[in-house]
Structures are given as structure tokens and as C-alpha cells.
Here is the input.
Amino acid sequence: MPTQYSVAGNVATIRLDNSPVNGLGHSTRAGILADLRRALESPEVDAVVLTGGGDFFSAGADITEFGTPNAAAEPSLQTVIDAFDAADKPVIAAIDGICFGGGLELALGAHFRVATADSRIALPEVKLGLVPGAGGTQRLPRVVDLETAIDMIAHGNPRTARSLADLPGQRLFDLVVDDDAVGAASQFAQRVTGVQHLPRIRDLAAPDNGAVTDAARKQLHQRSRGSLAPLAALDLIAKATTLPFAEGLDTERHTFAALVAGEQSAALRHAFFAERAARTIPGLPRGIRSRAVETVGVIGAGTMGGGIAMNFLDAGIPVTLVETKSESLDRGIQAIRRNYQVQVDKGKLDAAALQQRMDLLTPTLDYVDIADCDLVIEAVFEDMDVKRDVFAALGATAKRGAILASNTSTLDIDAIAAITSRPGDVVGMHFFSPANVMTLLEVVRGKETADDVLVTAMETGRRVGKIGVVSGVCDGFIGNRMLARYQAAAKVVLNAGATPAQIDNAIEGFGLAMGPFRMADLAGNDIGWAIRKRRYAEQPESPRDAISDALCELGRFGQKTGGGWYDYEAGSRVALPSPTVDALLASFRASRDAALQTFEPEEIVQRLIFALVDEGARILEEGIASRASDIDVVYMSGYGFPRHRGGPMFYADTVGLGIVLTALRRFAPPGWEPASLLVRLAREGGTFSRL
Here is the structure.
């Protein structure tokens, strides 16, 4: 049974027992209601305590039921909460652990709430493109201040019970304890048994503050990048302050129904499940045990190496940081300390925690000091000869069984592994810059990579807060290989007459965090130039990116040089139109003697995003990615693709693969052929999601 019912003295306890997170699926809702009725009908029971089990009060709705008959089947969550409201005996929610979404709405429907101090409280529905659907937007603003309600509902941010209980004037919690919420709730029940008028949150007034709401709306417009749910949530919070409770609840119900049926929520639910699916590595034998990783070595103390080191320091894992020159090592250590000091200054870290992290860091100029590390990650310059030298040294120095990982973003892991006498220990672990901030980790499986090495790389990524995706070996792996196609499509539009700003604005209007040219200026145009020069040498027949090469030959590497595709004033990251780039483009276009075109934003988006889709289809054909959803995770987590569109492959499914294919053929030069997988799926009416 998904609930357990017991009576001790005059108090009935209903315990949710639907592992792993006490999701509020249909059977659980029915169990709660049946147990509540049993308690209300029993003359021996004077009060009811509702609680969870394990680490969860409840994580909320069972989203696997969305779109199924059980989602709308009675009793709904609202029906259960209405029964709490109507109960003539006190109902006390005893919260210990996670209380999210529908779980919090359930607790808000109780007459009283008791919680352990470190319980985590949230209404995170906006992260799935939804709003709370069982009164959360109407009840929470009645028991906490408006700023807190907006942060928790429109942003989906969690709080601890203690922090909420400390808010001036809060009426969310009646009691917060260090432990044993159920025992405290049972004792509290004796104080409220026989109360004539049981308190209901719906009867409270939510304070109105238009200035707070207006400021929040302006901020959400800037940050939501086209996502509907945050602004819808804010509108509902505002209604809680102006409408009668029943009207606000009715508006919330209709808003939830519209969002749950929409494309954005479907995309965000896809993103949720895609990240979980990425943890599973197809084709591995069952029972593979990971290797122990207690100490880590990082080779290279530059921006990337320092960022990688911080991930492990944050997780409490000792790091040995290796450099070849003392000046470089000192700069790297100073950069790490400076990054932590920024966190201290912002109140995200205290001085003691900063020092604890720095105490875990061992800087060295000698490879022998990483001899006993369980995992060694190379993070040196993206040059095959340099990396071969590093791995030759690692092969001779690292202990037997140590995992040797390369942070390469494009180079051949198999060629790197061949330098060592133990290629089975070699794996790619491609962190994204800045490595201490970005959540994506591409784990690159070489042809000799041992199964337990692959499993360990993925598990280690999770330990340090990364979302791991397995990629096969190819130039650029999943993310950067697709990025090259995307950038090439952007250059076609640029060369034909669009400006960098027109292209960037169209892509940012679609929802990406940055357009291709602003992103290139931020990352550094010299990075792409180095990759292109390598490819020109390895593949002499490959097409040249003449305009980008000419830009780099002028020393315009982006923000760090004060100019790239845009100009930048000293100390500013604001991209300004560049007369130098305008002149360069005019000269280049004149040399081609081709008529200039004009492009609408919609066509720019199609050209660039559909190029991603076609290359993603090729990656699937070749087995570089195991699932289309893995590609979506890479682009949402590493490249700023909007989550509310679900990633490039899911977005293509929503557009229709036939439409995507027709557009690609319209844009393509003579002789170009689309990915055969895309052609087949379009012909059969299939989707990437159903592969």
C-alpha cells in the first residue's frame, strides 16, 4: 500500500509509503483520502498527523502519470486537500526531508505544519514548464512575504524550513524542531485537539505589493528567454493578493491545464527524463563496479585546469595540481583562491570553507606527486603533441589501475590512449568552460576504454555535480562536432549579407543564451582558429572558413583583445558594432561578386538550428551518441539551448521532421545530401524521440 495508517493514543498517523520519493500518484492520493476518512470517522481519534518516510515527506506529483488517465482520476490532489480543509479534527503535516511541489501543497492544505529545521521546501513546477496546480500559488503568498513567494514559485528555488520559519510574520510553520517531526507533531496535536475553529490558510489575506510584483515581472522578462511558466506563476501570485481565494484557485487550475498541455512543458519534462536516461550506458554488462576515486590529479593549472580542480575541492576530494613552471602554478593557485573569495564576498561560502578547500589542494611541479592518485585529468593546451607528451609521462608515473583522463574537446582519444601501455585506463572527460560552473561533462569512450573506467568517469561526474553524457570518438565528439556545423551555417548567412548582430539577435530571440558570434567573442576566436588550422593540416581538402581566418589574422580574438566580431570598450563586455568587421565583410563579399540577400529572423533560426539537427542525426547514425535525448542534454547543459524547447532533436520532433528536411534541402548547396536517418524518419513519419 502507498500509505500506512496507525493510531497511538488519540492521534492517527498517515504515513506516505511510495518509494523512492513518495510521489503523489493516483494510488497514493486515494490512500491518503481513505485513511483520512477512517481517522475522521473513528471516535478514538482526535487529531491526524500526515508524514512521509525516509528522506521525503513528498517530492510532489508523479510526472510519469502526466498525460495518462491516472493524472486526472479522482481523487485529485485538490480533492484530498479539500478534505483536509473540511476536516473537523486537526490535521497536522509533519515534514522531515524533501517537501516539494504537490507535497508542499498537501502540507499547505493541513491546518498546522511541523517541520525539522533542515527540511527542504519548494514549489519547483516552473522547472517543468508548469505552475503549482493544487493551490500552491494561492496559499503560499498568504503565509510568507511576497518576495519569498515569488522566489519559491516563479523561480522554483528551495528554502530550508528553518530559513522560512525565521521570516518575520510567517504563518507557514507552527513549529520547527531539530528532529523527530512526527513526535513533535503528536505532542502538538494535544494542544490543538478540540479547537473550535481550525485555521485554514485560504481564510488569510495575502498582502498586496504592486512594486514588488512589477520589479519581479521586469526581472523575469529579462531572464525567462521565452519561457511561459515563470510569468504565468507571477500572474497567479498577483491574483492571490487581489482575488478571493476560490477565484484565484480556479484561475490557477485553468493555467495549469493550459501549460501541461503545451509544448514547453512537454519539452521540459523531456529534459527532465533525458538527463536521467543519460546516466544509463547501453550495452554494458550488468554489475560493473566502479573504481575507487579518493584522490585526483589535474595536469595544467590554467583556467580549465583550475576550474576542474575546484569541482573536486568542492566535493571534499584532495587534488594534486601539476604545472611545468612555478609562475604558471602560482597564477593557477591565485585564480582558484580568487574564485573562492568571490563566493565568500557574495555570501555563498564562508572563510573557513574557503580554507578547507585550499587545504585539500597540493600544488607541484613534479609528476611523481600524482603517482598515487586514483584519477588524473589532463587539462593542457589543445595540441596533440603536447597531450601525447603528458600521457607518456602519466603512463610511466601513475599507479596501476589509475584512470587517465583527457579533457580534450576535439582530439582523438584513441590516438592519445595509444601513447600509453594501458589504453583501457584512458577515457575522455571533457569539462565545459568555466569548468567550476558549467554542468555538462562529455565522457568519451575510446575503443579500448574499460567498462569500469567508463562507469567510474560517469559516477565521478555525478559526485562533483555534473551531468554526464557518453560520447564515442570523433572530431569534436557530440557537442563541438555539431557546433562546427552550426557555426558553418552562421557563416553562410553572414557571407550572404546578414550582420553578426542580426544573426545573434535571431538566435537569442529563439532562446539560446548567446548567438554564435557573441559566443565566439566570449570563448576566444583564437580557439576555433587553432582547431581549424589543425583540421586544414589533417584534411587539406576540407573547406576553409576564410572570413573567420581573416578576422583572426587581424588579431581580433574577441573580448580579451577588445575586438572580435564586435568591438568592446575597455573593461566592458557590451558588444558594439565594429566598423572594422563591416569593412572586412564588405571586402569579402565584393570579392565573391554575389548578390546580397536579406534574411528574416525565422529563416536564420531555421538555417542554424536545423543544421544542428542534421549533424545530430549523423552522429546517431554513426553510433557516436546512443540516444537523441543524449544530444539534447549536451546542448541544453553545455551550449545554452533553451530547456523549454527540449534540445535540438526534441525541437525538430515538435516542428516535424518533414518540415525540417524540406527546409534543409531548400537551404543546401548543390550536391549536398541530408543525413539518411533524417530522411528515413521524415519519410516514415517517425521522430527522434521514438528511436
In short: The mean pLDDT is 96. The first strand starts at residue 3 and ends at 8. The chain has four domains: 3-261, 296-471, 482-498+597-623+627-691, 522-596. Residues 428 and 444 are 4 Å apart (CA to CA).
